[in-house]
Specification:
The protein is mainly β.
Length: 644
């Protein structure tokens, strides 16, 4: 149906860690980018005067730091993509991956520390010979010192000295790209600290392998030869014939990174206005990746590759030995590494992160994200990132990589599935790097998960309180920067508030695992065992409150289900609420009940009035409270003896 050849990756041109996917992402970030910081503070600034002498001392310190990453960057050029609707139904994406696959992982860093000291000595003397009665302070001595140290360069030189060789791939090496130059200027205008990178390249390829890996390493060798008296004399003798021996342990820091494809997302393939369609999981046949999903009805405009990458961390120790004589004979041996964290049972579990990269099909541009979105439920909300609470105001902030250079405009917003009154835009002004708005989403129905009806929805419940959305923010594209992506889509998870029921008095019983206190034991005929258990129990319900909530009343349906979770109409079961509302559950009853403005509880009692012949076992029943979309659904378990 549609065939095209594109590049897949994080960078349009050469691999660039600044455009890479962050190994340890913050909420809302799409790419690793460059971060920098600088600080200068006084240590001493004052003067002391003794008679006609004044001494002034001023001292300060400063530091400048720039970091790229840590990130993983990859590029797979020349991928042949086919979008088809196979005879069996649905849509199929096949990608014949190119052979020139490259990936790097790691970081670049520059760090400068400095200090300054100024000391001056002044004497109070007559200002001139012709006016000896006028005095003024005259400087007779001044000393100014300024020291700045390129800390990373110094550290690298120390490591290279210990290694006896220049840095190499997989270790800390000089960053010739100079991307951090503008963040590391110090001293004179022409003086800039050098930056260095800690990275590694992969040597594998995807297809049929499902992942590719790279392991940045940082090694600190410790030469013991100069620490052993006998060996030190041997080293002096060896130096006379231009030779040297190095031997000792080597401390290594490893950060292995593994990346694989998880699926494809196609935009525009289901018609204008339709949300992007996802195709997964991926299967491989040689170097060809295939995934299935919704059928195609129109040409696609954007092709997104979904990835997952895992970052690990470990500290290891190995031993090295090197001997050289007159640059003719040179032998170097390194032993295998011993994982110290594993040995000490301090393993750091792998950190898996999902990510994605997009390509514009018409232009072939690998799109570099310029925007990101973060949602915040507030400082007092204990919810996961990008999760908000229904009925409570949250903030949404759209970030730009750089301050907006265009005229004042609006960022277009959309949400899927649709939510009533969700903002359609938010203003962004010239020079601003972000735009923020606040909104409140009330309780929403959640997807039922019915295989026969994918659109069916049900009230939220204690076991299924979440509803997921996709929020998209868009800015007008810039023709001068065709490979900049001025659109971002981020997931938003809504935590619905639901009723909660708990045991109060009587005989407590087993409750559901998510609410163990929601259970009671009843004995319809207390004349028979179990002794001391009566035909009634008391409980209470509550509803989580949010700021600004007011007291109200709402219709709540209470239903009785048997152990097969079918409605049970045959027994004489009553429910009595503290506000005087009473109903027989045959098997359901709908009552208008109070919903307090706070988390105050409303009490009720349940009574099983129909008695049966005594048996030596109990039966399980479920009391279900259904407040609909606004208040959700929960249940209370009843373990009943001697009932009918």
């Amino acid at each position: 149906m549609q065939n095209f050849t594109i590049s897949i990756g994080t960078s349009q041109d050469a691999l660039d860690l600044a455009d890479g996917l962050p190994l340890f992402p913050k909420v809302g970030t799409a790419r690793a980018g460059i971060s920098n910081t600088a600080q200068s503070s006084p240590l001493v600034d004052g003067s002391v005067t003794v008679l006609f002498l004044r001494t002034t001392i001023s001292a300060y310190y400063e530091f400048l730091m720039g970091v790229i990453g840590p990130a993983v960057s990859f590029k797979f050029p020349g991928n042949e993509v086919a979008l088809n609707n196979p005879p069996g139904g649905g849509g199929e994406v096949t990608v014949a991956l190119g052979s020139d696959q490259k990936m790097i992982a790691g970081m670049a860093i520059g760090f400068v520390v400095g200090a300054g000291l100024t000391v001056s000595q002044e004497i109070y003397l007559p200002s001139s010979w012709y006016a000896p009665w006028k005095f003024a302070w005259r400087t007779v001595f001044e000393l100014s010192l300024h020291i700045e140290i390129d800390f990373i360069k110094l550290l690298l030189e120390l490591i290279q000295y210990l290694l006896g060789e220049s840095g190499k791939d997989g270790y800390l090496t000089k960053d010739t790209s100079g991307k951090l130059t503008k963040y590391l200027g110090f001293g004179s205008e022409d003086e800039t600290a050098e930056s260095f990178k800690f990275y590694a390249e992969s040597d594998g390829s995807l297809g049929p392998d499902r992942t590719i890996s790279a392991t940045p390493k940082y090694a600190i060798p410790i030469d013991l030869m100069n620490s052993i008296p006998v060996a030190k004399n041997f080293m002096k003798l060896l130096a006379t014939i231009v030779g040297e021996v190095q031997f000792g342990p080597c401390l290594e820091i490893h950060m292995p990174v593994t990346l694989g494809l998880t699926g494809f997302t196609v935009t525009g393939g289901q018609g204008a206005g339709a949300p992007p369609a996802t195709y997964s999981p991926i299967t491989y046949n040689g170097s060809t990746a295939t995934a299935h999903g919704a059928s195609f009805s129109s040409p696609a405009t954007r092709f997104t590759t979904d990835v997952a990458y895992t970052t690990g961390f470990t500290v290891a120790v190995s031993y090295f030995f090197q001997i050289s004589v007159m640059k003719v004979f040179n032998v170097q041996v390194n032993t295998g590494s011993l994982d110290l964290l594993n040995l000490l049972n301090l393993q750091v579990p792998p950190y898996e992160v999902p990510g994605s990269v997009s390509t514009e099909i018409a232009t072939g541009c690998i799109l570099t994200p310029q925007m990101s979105i973060a949602f915040s439920a507030g400082a007092n909300a204990s919810v996961p990132p990008n999760t908000v609470i229904a009925g409570s105001q949250f903030s949404c902030e759209v970030f730009l990589n750089e301050p907006w250079a265009g005229d004042d405009t609006h960022i277009t917003l959309s949400i899927y599935p649709e939510v009533a009154e969700f903002p359609m835009s938010v203003p962004i002004r010239h020079g601003n790097a972000s735009a923020i708005f606040k909104h409140t989403i009330p309780n929403q129905l959640v997807i039922a998960g019915d295989p026969s009806d994918s659109t069916a929805k049900v009230p939220p419940s204690s076991t299924a309180p979440y509803q997921s959305y996709l929020v998209t923010a868009t800015l007008p594209p810039n023709d001068l920067q065709p490979c900049f992506d001025w659109e971002v889509t981020a997931p938003l998870k809504l935590l619905n508030r639901v009723l909660s029921v708990k045991f109060y008095s009587g005989t407590s019983g087993e409750g559901p695992v998510w609410n163990p206190q929601a259970g009671a034991v009843l004995n319809a005929d207390p004349n028979y065992p179990p002794q001391g258990v009566f035909n009634g129990a008391a409980a209470f319900y509550s509803f989580p409150s949010v700021p600004g909530q007011t007291s109200t009343e709402a219709p709540i349906t209470i239903s009785l289900y048997n152990d097969e979770r079918k409605l049970h109409p045959r027994s004489d079961v009553w429910i009595i609420f503290s506000n005087g509302k009473t109903a027989k559950l045959a098997p359901s009853a709908t009552l208008t009940l109070p919903i307090p403005a706070n988390t105050a509880a409303t009490h009720f009692a349940v009574e099983w009035r129909s008695m049966g012949e005594p048996v030596n076992y109990s039966s399980r029943f479920y009391l279900v409270f259904d407040g609909g979309e606004a208040y959700g659904q929960t249940e209370f378990w009843l373990t009943v003896w001697n009932w009918s």
